[in-house]
């Protein structure tokens, strides 16, 4: 039984107050013979702080209570340890928890603390950064960066920024060499996907498996404005491959060049980074243990 549980709380994620939540979690654990410990992120030096805490204290599992950024932080701190990651989805983007079938309602997610199944999944390294879920280059990375810098949150702000950026957006050229093939061309966006679904519910990589030792490069090629509604429709209906403007490359490793650019904007698990080119991507098979709901009979 997982007895000593550490909850890593991001106090600002998703604009959700977490003051009462701590009491709820502590009582919930106590009633079931578990002990809850809490760690608050500060936004500064969080990885080193969490790693230091994990060296000082013995826990049986660590829960990320926040969005994909908090999940990325906790997952990274757990690499190389036998400890499993639990997720309480409390961010504006909760993509990995959706892909793992974790309920999005916090009251429904709490039972994961004591009823769960252990699953081992792959993670990615993207340009030297750890990614547990999705990374991308191109249009979405640009929107994520602007969203990150802005002071408004929520899906409304994302759509507003996306609409502004879409007008006049110039797709870049990419040269992608994988362990299987080479592809060269312009792309509106290029998603590096171990998982399936963005926090926004866009299904960028239908049927991609989190534990198959492979990942997918999901390309949306330049398209005329008139095709945008049908592409969006395909993205929300698990029909990525049905569009004339999409393609997926499945692989274990890839090298992405962007001719003429010495650095490029890359979004990794919701956080924007400017990374030197070429970008190397590798799958790290079976590198993370996660707690997932027990399937209903
Ligand atoms: N105490 C804090 N104050 C300010 N920022 C913080 C704090 N703790 C963590 N952060 C920042 O929160 C971000 C991660 O947020 P997370 O993805 O968990 O939630 P989110 O609501 O989905 O995030 P966002 O809305 O920013 O995408 C990281 O950039 C991290 O540096």
UniProtKB/TrEMBL annotation:
InterPro entries on file: ATP-NAD_kinase_N, Diacylglycerol_kinase_cat_dom, Lipid_Phosphate_FormReg, NAD/diacylglycerol_kinase_sf, YegS/DAGK_C
GO cellular component: plasma membrane
Gene3D superfamilies: 2.60.200.40, Probable inorganic polyphosphate/atp-NAD kinase, domain 1
Pfam families per the UniProt record, alphabetical: DAGK_cat, YegS_C
Domain of life where this protein originates: Bacteria
Domain DAGKc residues, every copy: 1-129
GO molecular function: ATP binding; kinase activity
Keywords: ATP-binding, Kinase, Nucleotide-binding, Transferase
Protein name per the record: Diacylglycerol kinase family enzyme
């Amino acid at each position: 039984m997982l007895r000593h549980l550490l909850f890593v709380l991001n106090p600002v994620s998703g604009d959700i107050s977490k003051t009462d939540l701590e009491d709820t979690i502590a009582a919930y654990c106590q009633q079931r013979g578990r002990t809850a410990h809490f760690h608050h992120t500060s936004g500064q030096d969080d990885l080193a702080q969490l790693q230091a805490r994990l060296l000082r204290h013995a826990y049986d599992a660590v829960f990320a209570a926040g969005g994909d950024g908090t999940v990325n932080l906790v997952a990274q701190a757990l690499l190389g340890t036998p400890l499993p990651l639990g997720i309480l989805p409390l961010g504006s983007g909760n993509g990995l928890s959706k892909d793992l079938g974790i309920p999005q309602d916090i009251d429904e997610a709490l039972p994961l603390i004591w009823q769960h199944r252990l699953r081992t999944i792959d993670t990615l390294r993207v340009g030297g950064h750890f990614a547990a879920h999705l990374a991308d280059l191109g249009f979405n990375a640009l929107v994520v960066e602007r969203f990150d810098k802005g002071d408004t949150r929520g899906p409304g702000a994302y759509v507003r920024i996306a609409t502004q950026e879409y007008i006049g957006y110039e797709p870049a050229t990419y040269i992608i060499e994988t362990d299987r093939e080479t592809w060269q061309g312009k792309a509106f966006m290029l998603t590096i996907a171990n998982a399936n679904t963005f926090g926004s519910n866009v299904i960028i990589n239908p049927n991609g498996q989190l534990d198959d030792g492979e990942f997918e490069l999901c390309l949306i090629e330049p398209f005329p404005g008139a095709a945008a509604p049908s592409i969006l429709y395909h993205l929300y209906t698990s029909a990525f491959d049905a569009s004339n403007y999409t393609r997926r490359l499945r692989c274990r490793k890839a090298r992405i060049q962007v001719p003429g650019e010495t650095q490029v904007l890359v979004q990794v698990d919701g956080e924007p980074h400017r990374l030197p080119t070429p970008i190397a991507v590798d799958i790290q098979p079976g590198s993370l243990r996660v707690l997932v709901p027990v399937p209903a009979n």
